[in-house]
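Deliverable D4.2, example record:
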Amino acid sequence: MPVGMTVAAAHGVRSLVVALMVGMGATAGSFSPLGVFGIIVRRIQTDSGLPVDPLLLFLSTMVIGTAAAVLVGVLVRSTDDTSPTTVTEPAPTTPGATRPPRSAVVATLVGMAVLVVGAIGFGLDIGFLALTIALALMLAHPDSAPGAVRDVSWGIVLLLAGIVTYVGVLQRNGTIAWVADTVSTVQPALLAALLICVIGAVVSAFASTAGILTAVVPLTVPLVATGDLSAVGLVAALAISSSLVDVSPFSTCGAIAMANAPEHERESIYRGLLVFAGAAAVAGPVVSWAVLVATGWF
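Output generated by the structure prediction step:
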């Protein structure tokens, strides 16, 4: 995402377009059999005794994610101002004037390696570990510390932390699970499946997609037990509904986009991402449910 924002600024491309395209690209590929979400969903299905079809899950999310990216690209371009975009050339700088010391680059790469190994290999808390590594780098290279702290988008951090805390309280109190469990008893089962997809989309816009899938996918078991619904199609529809809204400014992908966008574009990006996430929270569940569940083809 940061690289995409840099390229967008250099070539006069709207940052909102880049943010949406990256978000849709993540949706299109994250449920592959080797992707994180694909692995999580497959494990949940296996633990819940549900049928598993990794290829259908991947192809359905890829097709709908790609279609959403094309549609969004067309809609955003149609609202662009027809006047040519003026790209401001950066002021010339002396070669090597802003290049960080080699020792700082090496230390940063080592810190990234430690972060990956510590989080994945030893199960350490990735947030605390990242802050610890950042503190060590700041102490080792104090000249870069003031700029690093100043460039953090603290408003975005506060916004995201508040939303995550609120949703965490709802999850800890069992509110989300209670709502989803209540909906799963709705008759007919086809309507309950649509409501569960809507719940997954709305909650995922403010919380972790992986966490929502972990909580909601097992609730599809009683619906599948009725024999009226396909487990594979329902899980795929739920996965699509929960991931299309990941570009919400309250979710990780959207927050990263806002944090790396130029300061003067952040308000417009916030509005654009919020509008798209709201539309996706409605259209995503309806379309995926209609194609993958209601038709009975899968």
